[in-house]
Batch of 2 targets.
Target 1
Amino acid sequence: MSTQNTLTCESQLVDKLRWRYATKKFDSNKKIKSEVWNQIEEALLLTPSSFGLQPWTFVVVTNPELKSKLPQFSWNQQQPQECSHLVVFARPDKIDEAYVANYIERIAEVRGVSADSLSTYKKMMTDFVKGATEEKLAEWMSRQCYIALGNLMTVAAAVGLDACPMEGFSSPDYDRILGLTEKGLRSVVVCPLGYRAEDDKYAQAAKVRFPKEKVILHI
Amino acid sequence: MSTQNTLTCESQLVDKLRWRYATKKFDSNKKIKSEVWNQIEEALLLTPSSFGLQPWTFVVVTNPELKSKLPQFSWNQQQPQECSHLVVFARPDKIDEAYVANYIERIAEVRGVSADSLSTYKKMMTDFVKGATEEKLAEWMSRQCYIALGNLMTVAAAVGLDACPMEGFSSPDYDRILGLTEKGLRSVVVCPLGYRAEDDKYAQAAKVRFPKEKVILHI
């Protein structure tokens, strides 16, 4: 991998991070093409997580009828309806020994090793899920979902997709409307994606960040 | 922004997300050049956050003496010492009305508007920080740090930097050693960055993810 190429790619990426903004109004007529969306899904799938446990399901909502029910449970924000694709980051209701065992099976399958050879790793993870309260584990899983959110927003900007991360929604109502409860899932955070409307005035607003020297500390 | 270009860039990005892995052993002789590192800092600074409040400080540790003290408080993992640059994601001890007021001043400064014109936005954020418990706000701030972690790992991969996200460290000890406590900061998660050692056998291991059809749900 040549440093020159990657530096160039990275400069582009920083430019794209400057280009992105929390989109307030999507053009509901513009849909994301499948070849673009497939790359987004690949990137989501590759998100790193603690222990590699991937305590998440990425729920992609494109059904217009379902989407139309969401603004009233999103502080009346219209983006979940007007966007092309809505990603709901959901965590499992709980994470337990069985989940860890299933993950170990998956490692054994992908790497062509025996599950027995992974016993030390398995014990470490099992001790982790047995040693923490349900509330603590729920929060730990939610944090992992935020890694995926960060990854998604960067990759979306890289392909020129607009996005709007949203914490302002009713998780129980989303879970009910989207049928997540019966699947043992809980919505954590959501991100509508698509293309900005031409008249979204927020697209023109200067990006606000604290001064670099206050945010980054060198020691 | 041409779709063709961005698709190509994105394909590269997905390849780079496949290339990355949680680096167990860094080559301590290889240092990240400043022109590469500057891009990383720009990307960190541009991380999106809820309300745009940026409840974080990114602590970049390169001092060898400080780094040498960290493995013993990191489950004996050597990456914080052997890496080139260690990023400690720290949140403010607390977030309050004064923090919000300071942010409003910053918006007014960057956008050239009066602070008074932002009173509705200010009230919304003030209500948010006054309406939640200290514990809830601490967790909310920590989640924002995980967005930055996700962004960092993706951007690092894009420039060919190796990284290892780590939750396994003693936050109070890091805060003491790095002098964060007296600055009103609390370490949340850390990420050593640099270049993989040639003999890090984990670099060759197949990447393990659950099957796409189990992780991504279309509705």
Note: Chain B has one domain: 26-198.
Target 2
Amino acid sequence: MLKSIKDSPLYPMAHPESIAICGASNSVNAMGTVLLMSLQLLGFEGSIYPVHPREKTVRGLTAYRSVLDLPEVPDLAILVVPTQVGVQTLDECGRKGIKHAIVVTAGFREVGGRGIALENELTAVAKTYGISFIGPNCIGLANPYHKLNTTFMEYEGPPGFIGMASQSGSFVTQMFNYISKFGLGFSTAFSVGNEAQIDIVDCMEYLGVCPHTKVIALYVEGIRRGRRFVETARSIVPRKPIVALYVGGSEGGKRAGFSHTGAMAGPDRLYDGIFRQSGVVRVHSVTELYDACWVLGSLPKPGGNRLVIQTHSGGPGAVAADSCGRAGLDLPPLSEETKEKLAPYIPHTASIQNPVDLTFTKNPLDYFGTILKALLEENNADMLLVYLLMVPRIAEQTMLELGVPEDRIPEQLRKLHDGMAGSVADLIQSHGKPIVGYTFRSLDEGIIKHFIERGIPVFPGHERAARALAAMARYVRLREKLAAGESDASAKGKAA
Amino acid sequence: MLKSIKDSPLYPMAHPESIAICGASNSVNAMGTVLLMSLQLLGFEGSIYPVHPREKTVRGLTAYRSVLDLPEVPDLAILVVPTQVGVQTLDECGRKGIKHAIVVTAGFREVGGRGIALENELTAVAKTYGISFIGPNCIGLANPYHKLNTTFMEYEGPPGFIGMASQSGSFVTQMFNYISKFGLGFSTAFSVGNEAQIDIVDCMEYLGVCPHTKVIALYVEGIRRGRRFVETARSIVPRKPIVALYVGGSEGGKRAGFSHTGAMAGPDRLYDGIFRQSGVVRVHSVTELYDACWVLGSLPKPGGNRLVIQTHSGGPGAVAADSCGRAGLDLPPLSEETKEKLAPYIPHTASIQNPVDLTFTKNPLDYFGTILKALLEENNADMLLVYLLMVPRIAEQTMLELGVPEDRIPEQLRKLHDGMAGSVADLIQSHGKPIVGYTFRSLDEGIIKHFIERGIPVFPGHERAARALAAMARYVRLREKLAAGESDASAKGKAA
């Protein structure tokens, strides 16, 4: 395990003070140019040196014919040049004394034949000069905390807590917008491309000690260093959850992955075994990957897999119970003590089973107050799932009847919702138990929006909520197993 | 099977010219009032008679102390009265000569004990007077084609092609907003409540002959008339797909369902068998239910389960291939003929496997034009899944460079996108093969929005797309099996 993030060769790549971009020009059709635009859009504060054989200036910056002409040795070179000059350009970087590079250029091992030989040449050049590099055939990385984005797409949303290492560049760039819709962001996201030198294990190791990273997401088409993967993951998982999406196990996924990055996939069960040994939570879709990261990065971990569902609508409660059961969660009955606590607050039509179906609430404030608190205090519950149904018109109507002037209603509603969401966030912290919401409404309205702003995940639909909760319970179980395995090993050590 | 929709007792309930609402008042906290508001909001064009013991007028309408005082015999009475006067109110309806009722009032069999006896009294009264009724403990129905909405929530979106019969009222009301976001709407949606008389089978039978209904959605907590369910479904499925969400099979779902409507659930495998025999496609979440309805109601049916995936991003292609494989779809290789057709249009970095990963398109118009058409013509493909990535800024930038004045860009983009979506819709019709999109972007932007407006489903994420396509393939297989079974039976008949 790394002692400090600064011991990783990835640290200078994720925190450069100066960057050369080989291949940036004044044509917005050139990938190097688009990459430069992303970098400028996020407000990168260091020096940027466009390198191009013919341009004098590029997007307001002095351009250089070769890295050899640069006025200083940049911390990082990004290569977005044609395949045939890739090796030569890296060689020039080496001669200049550049020690870190991102090779975006494609046309290497992934195309087979001559590409394989070319990739070997690239690696040999790097070795000669002691260059650490990511790629080729990658899109680089994004570290929004350093205002660094070396990809083709604009970084959207805030810096966040998800550390990503991906064998597909799309699952870095095309996720900027996707995760920002849930109020999430990346701490640092790596696209590793063909992994000619730095691989997904190096990135995982880096993210393991990255202080901004609370949870690690992996997109895997094939793991080359199996043993090292397991060891590294096992050293991280006790402190930080790792979630992996692996697609190579199915016929379709295997074929697609191979033609994509040339990764050799293995049978599904083999990878299941690797992930289980490593303490890594495996998921089966991009949606599940980020849903799991959302709950694992923003909520306290549950003590076990016993769940209580709170709803005021029978059908949504029943489908959630069904999905949670199928996902392997346990729905225990409530204790007598909790039932007594709830009694004063719930109508006679309610069902105090699990799901707790209130049918309606005598006082809407109780739903996120007294009732939720009583359920959090339930000893049989490790976590809570709460149904959210907000109909803006009804809330507005109620305010009107309470005598709130019409023009002040939006502000009053905002305050009310934020207050409720805030007190739920406080309850989560004070009780150390996770609460997750689910809804069929949009995530950008009423109290749902405020829940999300306060870091309480709300899922569109019961199945996504069920799987995210199950991922959280699975992490806890895997972590326990690792701990038990370790103490077994140390006990054996002592006995020997 | 019904010969005509008009032969069903549900027809007058879904097409009344006059309605009495027992329980509507001037308090917006009263459920009867909220129901009246929904009815007025959708612009119901017939007569509405509020019935309340004390009110003189209700929301601008003359109110009556009892249905006995009404100036005419209304086609439909809706009972939203306290439990203790439910039976008496239905009795008065009978004495007035009313033949159709929706009993929203709750507190019957679902609460057990005295409630069971009360429900029996209700049924007896209905029998005495020959009243057909839905409920009790339901929320009634919505038929937007008749501007009829007898529920507590405002109908949102257009009238549509999904016929719904639900044992939970929430899955009628709380879906108005949900499905409208996909451009979908209900033809007619029924909440059956406790099914004291009219049940989910009656509703299914009605929807089977409803001309606006292209696909039937069922939410099932327990089926009472098993044999009749199977017979009815088998008579509908050859013409119209039926999709069912059943939650009673798991422990959590069973308990929740029982306390909800008192339905007795059966083991999962039993219901799996009932659905299979009936030709009904079973799903496991609300999301899946409406996703399946979306594709089944808006696209031509595939000839089999062979799928081709088209993408320009490797990772998204690989995860889609993985999900589709897991969902049971087949991803055959392309024929030599198709590969030859594609050759001129794709870059050398592309992979002409399945997924067809273009990496990028030489001409963006080819993606939804020549390339898509060549894949539709592929004999090995029964259906297509296409990855959609729209980045509004990039499209705008391209327009600017083509010399389009900045203020005309939004309109030009709209035209461009609508044109592309329109030609894809035409390709679907002319080739009789379904095309479905998937994306990680919002559904309300760029070309994605236009796809949806043109009736081409686009799913958020690969897994939802995979399951929807699999549901479509499953319907086709079930329908074939029914047809084979029938011809077997008739062959046996002939032999005998």
Note: The radius of gyration of chain A is 26 Å.
